[in-house]
Amino acid sequence: MKYFFIVFSLFFLVSFTVSADSNQENRSIVQGLKEKKDTLSLSFFLNHYEKFFKTNFNISECPGAAIVIVKDSTVIYKKGFGVKKIHTEDSVDVNTVFRIASLSKGVTSILAGNLVDHNELNWGHFVKNSVASFDLRDKAQAARLTVNHLLSHTSGLYKYTNSKLIHKGLPLSTIVSGFRNVGVVAKEGTEYEYQNAAFSVVEKVMEKETGKTFETLLKERLFIPAGMKYASSTYADIKQNDNVALPHKWNHYSKKYSLTSLHKNYYNVAAAGGVNASITDMGEYLKVLLGYRPDIISEKSLNDVFSPVICTSDKNTYVNLWDGVTDSFYAKGWRVLDYRGRTIIYHGGNVNQYKTQLMVDPENKIAVCVLFNGPNPFNGPVIPTFLSYYDFFKAAMLN
Question: Considering the entire predicted model, what is its pTM?
Answer without folding.
Answer: 0.90
